[in-house]
Amino acid sequence: MELEKYSFGTGDRFGKQGSPQLQAIRKAEEQGVDIAIVWNKSHREHLIVGTSQVDVRREADVAVKNSGWSGSYYVDADHIGLSNVENFLDHSDFFTLDVADYIGEKAEERDLSSFVDACSFLSGHLHIEGIEEPLNITREKIRDSAEKYLFAVQRAAEIYKYIESVKGKDTFITEVSMDETEEPQTPEELLFILAALTGQKVPAQTIAPKFTGRFNKGIDYQGDVEQFNREFSDDICVIRHAVSLFDLPNNLKLSVHSGSDKFSIYPGIRKAIELHGAGVHVKTAGTTWLEELIGLAESGDSSLDLVKDIYAASFSRFDELCGPYASVIDIERNLLPSPEEFSRWNDQKIAQSICHDMSCSDYDKNIRQLLHVGYKVAAEYGTTYLQALETHKDVIGRHVCTNLFEKHITPLFL
After folding, report:
1. Whether domain 6-285 has CATH 3.40.50.11810
2. I need a surface site. Which of 55, 80, 97, 334 has the fewest CB within 10 A?
3. pLDDT, tens digit, 9 for 90 and up, residues 98-131
4. Phi, psi values for residue 80, rounded to 5°
5. What distance lies between CA 273 and its chain's CA centroid?
6. What is the DSSP string of 145-183?
7. How far apart are CA 368 and CA 169, in angstroms?
8. What is the pLDDT of residue 179?
């Protein structure tokens, strides 16, 4: 199974927006760009919403069948490890192996020594096409990288081999994720991570490194855009070089776990993939859920009241909801409107406060981040929330499709 050059991961908290998401992918196809759609959902999201991976598979299959889609699509077991992979095996064909928690743990000394010896041929000034300065590689740098990343790669191999033992070889896509960590990987470190994946026989088709800057949930990239652009381009060059050196899939590409809506880095990503002829996988998370809230707010009456209630509950449960996402949100709590103030706003003001349009004076990044992590509250409304989605599916679907196509796909690929 081989992942296409361009692929897009579409998070869908409540599993009701598969059709409008696919419609956005179809619109790209109509303009000459083929993008594989990947429906992704994590173990944490399943626990909070009360779903399972069979629900994601059903959503994907139904959306594809109803639309007559003949392109590629996948179901991603997002950010899984050995402790929970069992729940995803039967209904996934894309597995994101999240081993960021193991970064920094040391492998056995014999494994470290063997890795350094195996990579010593890279020592010296390594010139990589597309990178301005040669990489200065020493045995000490190889050792440092091995101490930092080899154990994590070994854990990825352990997960991969278990999945392969159940599903069979070449029956699924493998992604390795190391993005949820404090320090970005240097080009040298990425090269050694790829060498380790080769040594551990993990046929990763995408890899999600940590880039410089903050990828907070629901809002734009926070950091030095030019530095990100250099890192992204350099990483593409490292991957291309590693594929020529090691036993890695020819279609190996970068994956950007965006946290949704990283609009300011899209031009740099597009420039780099066009310059180098590279592919990319972009994974969003939570954008769809926020588009649902926008559509419900615009629908007024009881649906608007539901959005106000969800905000009030999220505000009162701030610590509970934000705690698990502390490393990927940055909310100025004192600037959040009180539930009383929020409840006095009309439908347009609430919708515009959530909508990611930074040119709009009503846009509020603090409200948007809080609601981004507040989907647990909506889940607790159960059928009340799901029925509201069904009642207003047309306006919500329009928002979901427009957001994905115009704000994400168009600047990246069209």
Report:
1. no
2. 334
3. 999 999 999 999 999 999 999 999 999 999 999 9
4. -110, 160
5. 18
6. HHHHHHHHHHHHHHHHHHHHHHH-TTSSEEEEE--SSSS
7. 42
8. 85
In the chain, what are the domain boundaries? 6-285, 288-396
Pair 270, 413: CB distance under 8 Å: yes
pLDDT at 304 over 80: yes
Contact, 148 vs 181, CB < 8 A? no
Distances (CA, A) of 109 to 138, 154, 199: 18, 13, 16
Assigned token pair, 68: 């007559």
pLDDT at 257 over 90: no
* Residue-wise DSSP of 193-210: HHHHHHHTT---SEEEPP
C-alpha closest to that of 385 among 38, 50, 52, 9:
50
pLDDT in tens, 129-181: 999 999 999 999 999 999 999 999 999 999 999 999 999 999 999 999 998 77
For residue 117, give Cα distances in angstroms to 98, 143, 247: 27, 9, 17
Give the pLDDT score at 351.
98
What b-and-e string marks burial along 160-191, b requiring 16 or more CB atoms within 10 Å of the CB?
Answer: beebbeeeeeeebbbbbbbbbbeebbbbbbbb
Strand 206-208 to 73-80 pairing: unpaired
DSSP letter at 215? Answer: -
Buried-exposed string 39-55: b where 16+ CB fall within 10 A, e elsewhere: bbbbbebbebbebbbeb
Top-confidence residue, 184 or 259: 184
For tokens 């449960």, name the residue.
317
The H-or-E segment that residue 4 falls in is: none
Q: How far apart are CA 323 and CA 374, in angstroms?
A: 11
Mean pLDDT along residues 183-203:
96
